[in-house]
Amino acid sequence: MSIRKVRQLVWLGALCISVQAGARAQTGGWVPVSPEQVASAMRAAGVDTNADRIQMLASVTTAPGATLRVAKKVEESPNTMLAELACRVRRQCLPFYVLIHVDPVASAVAKPTGSRQIPASAVSSVEEHPLVARGQPVTLIIENATSRIVLPAICLQAGVHGQAIRVASPDRKRTYRAEVINEKTVRSTL
Q1: In the chain, is it the N or the C terminus that has fewer CB atoms within a 10 Å radius of its CB?
Q2: Strand partners, 187
């Protein structure tokens, strides 16, 4: 083996070691966001919740010691809220979404006493007994004769068995039309 090839191999080995060390230093410093951190940020924003009611829609990491802030809150259904969170320091994490499941007993107590009740005869069967609710996480199965894709999704509409509803990816970037199969599954075709 020539000296030139040996130098190239040594240089390539040193480059690989430095890249691995740099990658380890970058990923080793990031920590996963816990539901407790999210609940703390939600309480600071005025939403009384705990970690048991937080549903993380993706695996999110932050720089150690990062503090979260609530950027936006949207009520998805009477019992579910979608919240966008971000780090107070912009470069410590990317913005992300979580679902907060509100306690139905506490939300019923918090409603004003003068609120108008809708008669039961005016409510359709979908609203009375939906199999899936708006904002509910489900499994979306997209299939054709030769392939099958299984994805997590969020219901954008309530629905009963066999009804076609709109669902979205957890990040809300893609929407699909899918048939309700059961309380945890919807199906679409390619």
Answers
A1: N
A2: 141, 179
